[in-house]
């Protein structure tokens, strides 16, 4: 979303009557004014911008000395007085309080020492087992959350894999559709060539028929013309002409036989 659209939307949002009446968004308006003065508009953070944010981990208690004194107290004296600085401070300050009777060692003090010793014994004897049981409950609780998260993560990964598989199948359907179109085109080409061959055969039959018909007509014409010529020639011959032709043939026959050597 660009800066112009963001400004326009924010102005319309701040001009809503219910919002202007309740004045519940003064901070938002001030933030908008400051953003406008700086020449920039705030953008909504998405999961893409927070992708590299480290995941929260379970916090562990800090280290202690003597069961209840934080280790940071000792480390604060290391740079100035060395390792024994904090115990020395406690001893000297405690001696000062006791000597000046700022801290009176009455009977409650000795009862406190007894309770402290009893508490130390309880912590040393029962504390580790109790800590293990509590840590086990925490681990079980954390493992339950991890298992739920891993299960949901696996479900979404399987869903993504299934979606990718469906996309590949859709691409395969496109290839199959293209193959079917090509097959239909081949069938159309086959049918076209088949019908073209049928047309060729039928046209050839008709042409052969016309050729045969013309040949028969020529044969009949030749035969009829020969018969007609023969008939007309025969009509022109008379009986005397026939006898003359026969006599001529008989006269030329010996000459033909002599020339042939018969």
What features would you describe in this structure?
The chain is mainly α and 262 residues long. The chain has helices at residues 3-14, 17-22, 26-37, 71-81, 85-99, 107-236, 239-260, and strands at 64-65, 69-70. Among the domains are: 3-37; 195-260, no CATH class. The longest helix is centred in the middle third of the chain and has 130 residues, at 107-236. The chain is rod-shaped and about 195 Å long. This is ATP synthase subunit b. Belongs to the eukaryotic ATPase B chain family. Pfam families: Mt_ATP-synt_B (PF05405). Residues 153-180 form a coiled coil.
The number of distinct helices, counting runs of at least 4 residues, comes to: 7
Low-pLDDT runs: 37-46
Query: Which percent band covers the strand fraction?
Result: under 5%
Strand order of the largest sheet: 1-2
Helix content: over 70%
Number of strands: 2
| Mean pLDDT figure | 79
Provide the structure class: mainly alpha
């Amino acid at each position: 979303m660009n800066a112009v659209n963001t400004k326009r939307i924010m102005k319309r949002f701040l001009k809503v009557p219910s919002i202007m009446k309740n004045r519940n968004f003064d901070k938002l308006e001030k933030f908008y004014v400051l953003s406008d003065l700086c020449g920039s508009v705030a953008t909504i953070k998405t999961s893409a911008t927070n992708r590299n944010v480290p995941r929260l981990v379970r916090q562990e208690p800090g280290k202690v000395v003597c069961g209840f004194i934080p280790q940071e107290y000792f480390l604060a004296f290391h740079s100035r007085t060395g390792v024994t600085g904090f115990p020395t401070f406690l001893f000297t300050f405690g001696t000062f309080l006791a000597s000046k009777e700022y801290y009176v060692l009455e009977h409650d003090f000795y009862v406190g020492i007894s309770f402290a010793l009893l508490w130390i014994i309880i912590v040393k004897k029962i504390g580790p087992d109790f800590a293990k049981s509590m840590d086990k409950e925490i681990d079980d609780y954390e493992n339950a959350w991890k298992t739920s998260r891993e299960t949901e993560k696996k479900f979404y990964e399987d869903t993504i894999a299934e979606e990718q598989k469906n996309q590949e199948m859709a691409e395969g359907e496109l290839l199959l559709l293209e193959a079917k179109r090509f097959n239909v085109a081949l069938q159309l080409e086959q049918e076209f060539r088949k019908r073209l061959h049928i047309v060729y055969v039928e046209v050839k039959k008709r042409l052969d028929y016309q050729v045969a018909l013309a040949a028969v007509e020529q044969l009949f014409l030749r035969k009829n013309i020969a018969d007609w010529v023969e008939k007309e020639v025969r009509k022109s011959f008379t009986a005397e002409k026939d006898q003359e032709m026969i006599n001529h043939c008989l006269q030329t026959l010996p000459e033909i036989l002599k020339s042939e050597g018969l």
